[in-house]
Amino acid sequence: MINALQQSILLxxxxxxxxxxxxxxxxxxxxxxxxxxxxxxxxxxxxxWINLFLGAGIFALFFIAYKMGKxxxxxxxxFAGITLLNPTNNPIFLFGALFAAAMSAMIFYSVYYTLKYxxxxxxxxxxKEQIKKAIIFGTITAAYFAxxxxxxxxxxxxVIIIGIPLMLGFIFFALQNGIKKNFFxxxxxxxxxxxxxxxxxxxxxxxxELFKGKLINPADKKILANKKIKEIIVLRNLPKFGPFILVGxxxxxxxxxxxxxLLFV
Length: 265
Prior knowledge:
mainly alpha
């Protein structure tokens, strides 16, 4: 009964997060805090200590990524909520949901932004270094999976299922400088700074010395003004992950051990 309640709240919460993220770019606290609170209560009631331990660990890990500008604050809290509401009390469910979410997002956004960039006009020069790296990493990855497959350590179906998203991801990686410049970067004045802005690496050196790898907030205007900086380049309209979190949860809920079956012969 309690497991069914966990599952229901998990699906409703991630569905609500997917909708608000797709529409507004935010996963709101009114969604994530109840998920976390109810998840803690139900996990304690069922003595699901793995959920509680992993929930704290996931929150800490994603919070660090958030502070580095790699994920949104809503993502941090919703992943903590998902972990605490895990009806199986098994890490495999969580890892499966994360894997499915990451793979589905990689497929969609790699195709979407590559086509969008192609319509605008791909400039190889602005992506030259990333293309070289993508070729190297892609070749190494392909060779690695070929060795595993030939040795019978991984099923050929698994190589295809994992390999296609990875190859698409390498294409996105190769073109990311141009994609970022054309679709995510925005030059703004100090008065336009919003909460938790992500600083682009295209900023002048003195901006990067102050904020590279950190989030910037309206309270930081004075610091920039003192350095006689009038404008900065931030990253906005970044890919939304909420809908793919829902995809991951649905896949993990309907096939909890799909990741084990995928990775092991």
